[in-house]
């Protein structure tokens, strides 16, 4: 299949994860594995928002700097960020310096804390897990949004979150194992334990 490449290790991976060591390691160990803790989900939500309009490779390479800049994505700490922190972030060449995305990350931390009284971010996000997952044989069969990601984006915006469009939320759902869009034939298909 043209969209899968068998590596020297004999494992089939999608082309995007087959040539770059950073992307390959991320694909093999992290992408599509269930994330169910508040900090982990807040981090993924934040990074997906920063990725909008950029390559995931760019964000992944900057992830250590993002973690340092945003207090390891501790929502309680980030929720307390003020003008001095925004100025610091906008001067940090290690991250993506986009004011709207920086503001959204801080606002989303506050929205994350506000969700605690209603069961928390993990229960909120995972409440939009679909009943079925795609079974793609090629990239062309991988959706970029779904009814669930559209509903999730709308619900998050209503809860005070920003930079949470349907396509970004679908990418989040893929990244945290809520759907399994590993191509059929990939060594990772079904590895999350969420989908048989």
UniProtKB/TrEMBL annotation:
Spans through the membrane: none
Residues reported to bind Zn(2+): 182
UniProt entry keywords in alphabetical sequence: Metal-binding, Zinc
Record Gene3D superfamilies: Hypothetical protein, domain 2 (1.10.340.30)
Position of the signal peptide: none
GO BP term, pick one: base-excision repair
Pfam families cross-referenced by the UniProt entry: Adenine_glyco (PF03352)
Molecular function in Gene Ontology: DNA-3-methyladenine glycosylase activity; metal ion binding
Database matches in InterPro entries: Adenine_glyco, DNA-3mA_glycosylase, DNA_glycosylase
Protein name: DNA-3-methyladenine glycosylase I
Organism per entry: Agrococcus jejuensis
Taxonomy of the source species: Bacteria, Bacillati, Actinomycetota, Actinomycetes, Micrococcales
């Amino acid at each position: 299949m043209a969209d899968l490449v068998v590596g020297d290790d004999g494992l089939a991976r999608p082309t995007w994860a087959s040539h770059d060591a950073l992307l390959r390691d991320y694909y093999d160990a992290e992408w599509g594995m269930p994330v169910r803790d508040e900090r982990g989900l807040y981090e993924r939500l934040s990074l997906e928002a920063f990725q909008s309009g950029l390559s995931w490779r760019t964000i992944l390479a900057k992830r250590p700097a993002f973690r340092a800049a945003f207090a390891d994505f501790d929502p309680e700490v980030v929720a307390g960020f003020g003008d001095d922190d925004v100025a610091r972030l906008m001067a940090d060449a290690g991250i993506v310096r986009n004011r709207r995305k920086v503001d959204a990350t801080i606002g989303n931390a506050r929205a994350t804390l506000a969700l605690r009284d209603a069961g928390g971010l993990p229960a909120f996000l995972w409440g939009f897990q679909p009943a079925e997952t795609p079974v793609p044989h090629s990239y062309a069969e991988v959706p970029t949004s779904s009814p669930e990601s559209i509903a999730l984006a709308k619900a998050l915006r209503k809860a005070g979150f920003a930079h949470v469009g349907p396509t970004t939320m679908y990418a989040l759902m893929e990244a945290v194992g809520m759907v399994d869009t590993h191509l059929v034939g990939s060594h990772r298909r079904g590895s999350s334990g969420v989908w048989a």
